[in-house]
Structure formats: structure tokens, C-alpha cells
Amino acid sequence: MTNFDQEKGFATRAVRAGQVRTAENEHAEPIFPTSSYVFDSAEQAAARFSGEEPGNIYSRFTNPTVRNFEQRLAALEGGESCVATSSGMSAILSTFMGILSAGDHIVSSRSIFGTTRVLFDKYLAKFGLETDYVALTDISAWQQAIKPNTKALFLETPSNPLNEIADMAALSALAKAHDCLLIVDNCFCTPALQRPLAQGADIVVHSATKYIDGQGRCVGGAVVGDNQLVGEDVYGFLRTAGPTMSPFNAWTFLKGLETLELRMNAHSAAASSLAQWLEQQPQVSKVFYAGLPSHPQHELAKKQQSAFGGIIAFEVKGGRAGAWKLIDSTEWLSITANLGDTKTTITHPATTTHGRLTDEARAESGITQGLLRISVGLENVEDIQADLQHGLDLL
Ligand SMILES: *Cc1c(COP(=O)(O)O)cnc(C)c1O
After folding, report:
1. Distance of CA 324 to the CA centre of its chain
2. Over the Cα atoms of the chain, what is R_g?
3. What are the tens digits of pLDDT across the range 20-34?
4. I need a labelling partner for 250 at 20 to 30 A (CA). Which of 77, 123, 149, 258 fits?
5. Residue nearest to atom 12 of ligand 1 (CA)
6. Which amino acid residue places its CA nearest to atom 2 of ligand 1?
7. Ligand 1 pocket mutation pick from 184, 209, 336 by most atoms within 8 angstroms of CB
8. Is the bond leading into 247 cis (omega within 30 degrees of zero)?
9. What is the mean pLDDT of the chain?
10. Positive or negative CA dihedral for 208, 211, 213, 217?
11. Of 6-20, 214-228, 277-291, which range is least confident?
């Protein structure tokens, strides 16, 4: 990242940061589909391999299109270093493999992406990394869960699907006091709405699959932080183990970043208006959206985020039967668990994303049978309302 990039506004960085023109003087960013690179001489090859001379060797290590994406995302998150990964899950895996060792302990929010929980409990646990879970918003629970071998606190804010908000400044102070790292999955807000590094986080992880792509095309991820943790430790794992991003996907995400702020603001505006409308419907018993003054952490969300994002959860009367009836009565909303797309999606968390939890764990997480989650897309919000109205009329 050049100083030029950091001095400019967010929108300018989103369009320009990290681009290096080739001798062809192309205007748009090129894609470099090459697995390896050639050297001028045997001596240069030796210098590259020994690390004496910086430069490309092999695309598991570096690729110009991928680097362009990494530098642009680093410029937007305000981090020194970014590494792109093949998926959001490999971003999380690479982070923990890069920075932790057997015997270390993680304290995690229990309101995290289900597969992340499987990664912690089934796979990291096999290699001697232990994880304990706490309620995202209960600072004293985080404090009590920290042990002498705790090395990382992990969370998503806002949480999925209930939009609970973590107090990042408070958790960062707690992490620093106990010599551990605060790692934030910034998938729901993206740097367009929230920059965790500026609020004390040490590392940001992303599923680029969601809003960074924004149009449901590619799977990818990224890790952002300082030159040591991310530039050395996480990158070292990535170039060795190999869950790197392909240049084609990097190019798609690069283009996604150019419109990220416009899209996130449009998703947020539509979700705010839909959440207000839902709150007025007699068949809806509760709406979970941090942009609503009724949300218990509305003030904290206002402090940490510039807008409230595109994800709404709401509870309908009639439990699971009511929720399923509403989903099945829609004419064109997409019934899928994916999110962060231009297309509005609707899902029933209790039987899909959170279906594998025990009844107690689900109750603890507030995932009731009547709960629905909508990822508000970029269609006309009146049309989204009208499609939901079909089902509401039957409840
Ligand atoms: C989807 C998602 C992930 C996993 O990302 P993939 O790109 O599907 O591997 C991680 N965290 C959150 C919050 C997600 O929504």
C-alpha cells in the first residue's frame, strides 16, 4: 500500500488502491492466469528463492491480480498487510494455524458462523487448540473465560442472524490486558460500514464470498492485520499449505470492492426501511435489526458502524409452521441460506444454518422456531414487502 492510497478517501481507495499498470498501459486491472514466473538468469532465480530479492516465483506464493486485491482491501480496512485466501473458512483456518500452537486456548463468541464452530470443535481441537464459548455481549463472561493460555478472542459483529453487537473497544482492552489477540470476522459490515482495526482489533477476517463479491459469483476470503501477524505468520502458513485465491476470483472481488460502499449503503437503506415496516406488522412479534431504536444495542451500533447492514431477523407468530408458510408463500424471493447478494434471500435458521445445534444451544442463542432471516438485496424494497405480504396475510 502506498501513502498515496492512505491519504485518499474511502471511495477513491476502493477504485484505485493497489493497481500497478503494466507496459501495455491498460486502464482496467488485468488478470494474470499464470502458475509460475520466469527469471532473467540462474543468479536471479537463486536470489528470488533465497528471499534476497523480492519478486514473483510461483502463484501459491504471490500473483499480481491477487496482490492487487490484497492491497486494495488492506487500504480499505486500514491494515498494513492482507492475504487473500480460497474461502472465508480458509481465512479463519490460516489465521489460527499461522498464529497459534498446540496448548493455546481461544475464547469465541457463541454467535458465530456454524462452520467456524465446527472448525474449532472438530478440527482445531484435534491438534490441541481448545475453544470456549461466551455470549457476545457479556463482557464479564469474556473476562471469566480467559485462562493463562488464552491467545485469541474471536467474534463476529453484528452477529448472525440476531444482529447482536460486540463492544470492540471494551473487548480490545480486555485482550490487551491479557496479552491476547482480538480477531473480528467483518463479513456482515465490510470495511465500508465498520473498520475493526481502528477500534482495537488485531486481525480482521473476511468471507469475500458475501458482500465483497456482492453478486453471488465466487468463493473467497481474506485476512488483514499488521506485517508480522498477517504479512509473516498467516502468510507463511498460506504459502506453505496452499489455500490461496485464484487470479480469476481475485479480479472479481477487486471489481466488487469498487462498488462496495455504494452497495452497502443501498443494502442498509433498504434493510432499514424493511425492518421498520416489519415492526408494524401484527403477525411479526419481534424484529432484530441494529438500526431500529428498539434494538438493545442501537447506540453501540451507531458508534461502531456508519450504517446497519443488510441482514434482518424477525419472528413471526405460529412458530415453525408460520415461518415455513411465509417462506413458501413468497413468489420470487430466493430461498437459500446464502447472504450478501444483490438478490434478496430468505431462510429459516432453526432448520438450516442452525439446524445442527442441540435444542438447548439453539435456545441459548435465541434462535426460535418462528425466526426468519432475510438478506436484503438491491431490488425495490416495495416489491420485497409485497412478496412477504403474501405469507403474512395467511398467518
Ligand atoms: C460465509 C461465512 C463464512 C465462511 O465463508 P466461506 O467463504 O463460505 O468459506 C465465515 N464467516 C461468516 C460470518 C460467514 O457468513
Report:
1. 28
2. 22
3. 999 999 999 999 999
4. 123
5. 113
6. 207
7. 209
8. no
9. 96
10. positive
11. 6-20
- In DSSP terms, which residues pair with 152 in a beta bridge? 106, 181
Q: What are the cell numbers at 20?
A: 500497478
Q: Where are the domains of the chain?
A: 3-258, 260-392
The b-or-e profile of 304-333 (16+ CB within 10 A means b, else e) is bbebbbbbbbbbbebeeebbbbbbebbeeb
195: amino acid identity, one letter = R
Whole-number Å distance, alpha carbon 52 to ligand 1 midpoint, is 37
Q: 371: which strand partners?
A: 315
The DSSP secondary structure of 146-171, one letter per residue, reads: --TTEEEEEEESS-TTT-----HHHH
pLDDT tens, residue by residue, 197-213:
999 999 999 999 999 99
Question: For atom 1 of ligand 1, which residue has the closest CA?
Answer: 207
Q: Look at the block and give the residue holding cell 485482550.
A: 175
Q: What letter does residue 122 receive in the DSSP assignment?
A: I
The residues facing 156 across adjacent strands are 185
Site residues for ligand 1, CB cut-off 6 Å: 87-89, 113, 116, 156, 160, 185, 187, 207, 209-210, 219, 221
Interhelix angle 319-329/381-392, rounded to 10 degrees, is 130
For domain 260-392, the CATH superfamily is: Aspartate Aminotransferase, domain 1 (3.90.1150.10)
Start-end of H helices in the chain: 3-7, 10-16, 42-50, 64-77, 88-99, 114-118, 139-145, 168-177, 190-193, 235-241, 247-258, 260-279, 298-304, 319-329, 359-364, 381-392
How many of the other CB atoms lie within 10 Å of CB of 43?
Answer: 10
For ligand 1, atom 8, which residue shows the shortest CA distance? Answer: 88
Residue type at 84?
A
Which amino acid is it at 24? E
**pLDDT tens per residue across span 307-344:** 999 999 999 999 999 999 999 999 999 999 889 999 99
User: Which of 85, 89, 203, 354 gets mutated to test ligand 1 (max ligand atoms within 8 A of its CB)?
Assistant: 89
CATH topology of domain 3-258: Aspartate Aminotransferase; domain 2 (3.40.640)
